[in-house]
User: Which sequence fits this backbone?
């Protein structure tokens, strides 16, 4: 009965789950269904979208026109993916995504976000000093490339379409998908052709 | 609320680490917290995502920054399940063998928006200014753009107005706008001239730029 | 810097206690910290008060709110005495038997002000607007008044411009102004119509209201 | 040599003081002098200023004209008192003082500030919801009294001159000084005549 001590996260998570189950608010089947949703949220999905866009001009046109529908063509949809907008990197403009107020991302194509994306430091700094933040992450953008930072404040979920690296003209979609990284689709890295 | 969660532009943060081959969850309780939230929103429909975001914003203010991401998830969902009457704090404390952590009570917004239509009021290319709003409850207009002017780059379809939806006020939908702000408009001469920040803003947050 | 110390208007705080017959210090180390700071500023002249305030603003951001007031004093003065080369961190760690706490390195302001004269530019009754400044280092213009207009109520004599003085830039003095802002100008309709907030602002922070 | 543990404030304060003394940067005499300054910083000084202003119209006129000089007449001066401005409560306007960015106060007349004044909660809230904050502190101001909150952001140090309570016309200056509280001179309380 003593409630002076503060519960550890592990104890609190177990307490809430057991109470929900015992009181009948949720069942194991619900948790299994939630787990199935979790398993479907992979950034590798986004890599497939990017590889398809690089390989298929018609798909790319549909993707830029209606990101949600084009991702759904490949079977990628779900929570935090109600309205997906694709933003295209160009030689003149580099895009990067943040959520300053919490940590929203396009789960169906980017998966659950990594620690750095959720860190208060990234959230606070990238809208204020984007060039410095990208540089610290290993991406030194030339001064003649404008930076555009997209803050995920409403229900739009952004996916960055990175520049296709040179020397990949004859690569298959699978080969291309294999070099696309999560960071490149959040916009803080370039895609590099690996041999 | 102008809370600690509204981090955009705040100074004092340093380097952050990018983990190689990062697992989705770092400890088992993190996955439990995530799954419990998904099940509570999508299956139990105990609360909506606007209420969920606000439950985290209401965390004790000096606990927010040190907390891990899924710790915030856990504190938020625990708060809501208790507030909605589905769970009982004393029972949870007993189960946990210690006091479970919860957020502070909500202060409701009184303003449920300025737009009565789902048809867009602004078009791509329009100059708009962000209203000087300071709602006491949930809002998604960051402090760092308030009072500043930008250009509409894209009109998104109508979505639930979060300032109302997070507080059980009548649900209305209105368009959101991707508004591009020049970095120097936001941060003055300290920013790079060519850079922009795009913020996705509900129509009620905006007025015509003077 | 737009740091955590700039608390005016931040939401998420609740009740605070007013202690009856409060002692000046609650623990002996608090008095030691206070006296060490007085002696370091006034007698040793190791640093000035602007540097001192900034040394506290540079505290690790998630340690600021939970810290006691004199804990901040202590972390600030320790940081400065080390940065000025008077004390050595390894030596202090040895003496304390543990790692002494210090602040993060300073980021200097590049802007040392817009005023070159100690004669006042504005008069009582003038309408002025606070510039949209975001200096990376020390400043005393709170975020909550930036971009807002008010009325000069009083002209104070010239004082050292802190944005320069805290960073070893050439010391200039300029007048400060007690500027009255209507609460609704700052906080919109959520504030009481008759109330005002008066902020004491250096001339370089101000421009003529458009 | 292990520096993994973080020093307690007590250990850190002792370490810094001993290092300053041993390296000869400061002497015990300096600490004694600092202590003498500390002893001189009393809010009771402000109470004497208020009582004098209530009793002596000429002094009050000088006090309102030049607070620093008038306080110095009574011997009250020192650090954080370089430019003292007195703000007068009226039946139409209630004044209260805060320092949102640190915790500045007029030390020579208000003493070192109390915990509540230094609390992040007071600093954050009183500029935003002054009526609620004052009410929580026990001061319910009628709607027809305007509130004016003074944020100590520069070098001016404010002293609130509270309203003299009714029924004290024949009181001596000493009697008046005895009912003036620190809180009334920061502006978050009224002065009440006690018998």
Assistant:
């Amino acid at each position: 009965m003593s409630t002076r001590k503060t519960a550890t996260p592990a104890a609190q998570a177990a307490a809430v789950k057991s109470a929900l189950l015992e009181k009948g608010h949720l069942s194991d089947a619900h948790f299994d269904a939630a787990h199935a949703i979790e398993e479907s949220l992979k950034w590798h999905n986004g890599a497939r979208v990017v590889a398809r866009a690089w390989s298929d001009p018609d798909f790319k046109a549909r993707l830029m026109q209606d990101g949600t529908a084009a991702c759904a063509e490949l079977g990628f949809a779900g929570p935090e993916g109600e309205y997906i907008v694709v933003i295209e990197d160009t030689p003149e403009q580099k895009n990067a995504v943040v959520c300053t107020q919490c940590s929203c991302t396009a789960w169906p194509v980017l998966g659950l976000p990594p620690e750095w994306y959720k860190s208060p430091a990234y959230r606070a700094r990238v809208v204020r000093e984007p060039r410095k933040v990208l540089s610290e992450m290993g991406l030194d953008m030339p001064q003649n490339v404008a930076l555009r930072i997209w803050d995920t404040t409403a229900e739009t979920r952004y996916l960055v379409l990175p520049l296709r690296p040179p020397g990949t003209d004859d690569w298959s979609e699978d080969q291309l998908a294999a070099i696309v990284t999560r960071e490149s689709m959040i916009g803080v890295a370039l895609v590099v052709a690996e041999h | 609320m102008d809370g600690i969660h509204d981090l955009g532009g705040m100074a004092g943060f340093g380097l952050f680490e990018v983990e190689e081959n990062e697992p989705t969850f770092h400890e088992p309780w993190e996955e439990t917290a995530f799954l419990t939230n998904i099940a509570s929103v999508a299956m139990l429909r105990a609360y909506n995502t606007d209420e969920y975001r606000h439950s985290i914003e209401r965390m004790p203010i000096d606990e927010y920054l040190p907390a891990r991401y899924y710790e915030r998830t856990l504190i938020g969902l625990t708060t809501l399940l208790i507030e909605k009457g589905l769970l009982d704090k004393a029972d949870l404390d007993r189960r946990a063998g210690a006091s479970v952590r919860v957020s502070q009570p909500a202060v409701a917004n009184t303003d449920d928006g300025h737009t009565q239509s789902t048809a867009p009021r602004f078009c791509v290319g329009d100059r708009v200014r962000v209203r000087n709003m300071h709602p006491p409850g949930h809002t998604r207009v960051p402090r760092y753009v308030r009072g500043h002017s930008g250009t509409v780059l894209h009109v998104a379809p109508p979505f639930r107005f979060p300032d109302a939806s997070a507080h059980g006020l009548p649900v209305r939908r209105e368009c959101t706008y991707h508004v591009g702000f020049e970095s120097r408009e936001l941060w003055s001469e300290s920013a790079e001239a060519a850079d922009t920040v795009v913020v996705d803003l509900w129509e009620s947050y905006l007025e015509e730029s003077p």
